[in-house]
Amino acid sequence: MQIETLKSLFKKHKEEALFHRYIHLKNIAPLLKKLESKCDVSVIGKSVLDKEIHSVTIGNGPKKILMWSQMHGNESTTTKAVFDLLNLLTSENEVSNLILNTCKIMIIPILNPDGAEAYTRINANQVDLNRDAQNLTQPESLVLKNTFEAFKPHFCYNLHGQRTIFSAGNTNNLATVSFLSPAQDADCVITDNRKRAMELIAVMNANLQQQIPDQVGIYDDAFNINCVGDTFQTYNVPTVLFEAGHYKDDYAREVVREYIFQSLVVSLKYIANSAVSGDAYTPYLSIPENQKLFYDIIIRNARVEANGELVDVAVQYQERLKEEKVVFIPKIEKIASLNDFYAHKSFDAKGSLVKTILNEDIYEGYENDLVIVNNQKLSLKLIES
């Protein structure tokens, strides 16, 4: 698809009711109600705290795709994107007609509603649902497994978000979007099934490279049978991991939201038009693997004690829920020589002492919007546009 077409579709169908990072059931309830006239909106189970887990099903075609978002409650970017997608699919246009005539799509917008409301990765029982694919100890895990077995998808989309720490390869390029065709066995053999997922990723990457060149990565494919993607891959259902990452200054993840939307549309249109045999998988192998090379801020050439050696002071924002809004708290993460690391924002201390706001020695773990550099206040606060 032409990039301008994709951008136009996003602009027209972006769900304006969803924005920033804190998305939970209260936010999507009116949207689900609105979709009832055009989709099959169902309650497919309950969470630990008895919150409803919904599915939205649309399309009449023979090719079935299952998507789920917010398995980790604090990873909401893909939830915004699936509602943008649903706005597109419920409108009359050439793209939606093609997809819906050839595909049947089931979306679980928020698999972990308790975690979404608390803005935590884990569920209310303190369990990471993406490590519960085998033991199935949690009601949310059973909802997904039962839905998978009942729907019998031909493709699965496992929708997540990743931190700002990731680079696309061993470079200073941000991992704005990452993908993975999960391993199917401990040896990470490139099976025919994995090739089909790789082919879809290659198609999405080709589109993204035209807009964010060298900012797409591949997530670590070490096999873990307790992860949902790896488990579903062992069932010979091609499963694609999506990771909504970081774009410059996009802490609200609104820019990345569009790239996820585009990737969903491009891949669904490809499935609609193609057999997805796996023969076209090789471009996937050239996508660099993610590395953890970024901090949010690095204060370069600093001293933390008089006459001490020059070091770098790295800051990582801590995401906290405060009064129904996600705020970003600066925390000193590392004090060391960080020549091999990059930052989303850098300051040069030029050999000056870096102190706490109380003019005490700076230390790892210190949290504050301000530090003292050369006896002057330096703000570390995130200013969002």
TrEMBL record:
It holds the Pfam family Peptidase_M14. One of its GO terms (molecular function) is carboxypeptidase activity. Residues 21-335 form the Peptidase M14 domain. PROSITE patterns: PEPTIDASE_M14. The keyword Mitochondrion does not apply. The active site is at 309 (proton donor/acceptor). Coiled coil: none annotated. InterPro entries: Peptidase_M14. It comes from the Bacteria. Keywords: Carboxypeptidase, Hydrolase, Metalloprotease, Protease, Zinc. Its cofactor is Zn(2+). Belongs to the peptidase M14 family. This is M14 family zinc carboxypeptidase.
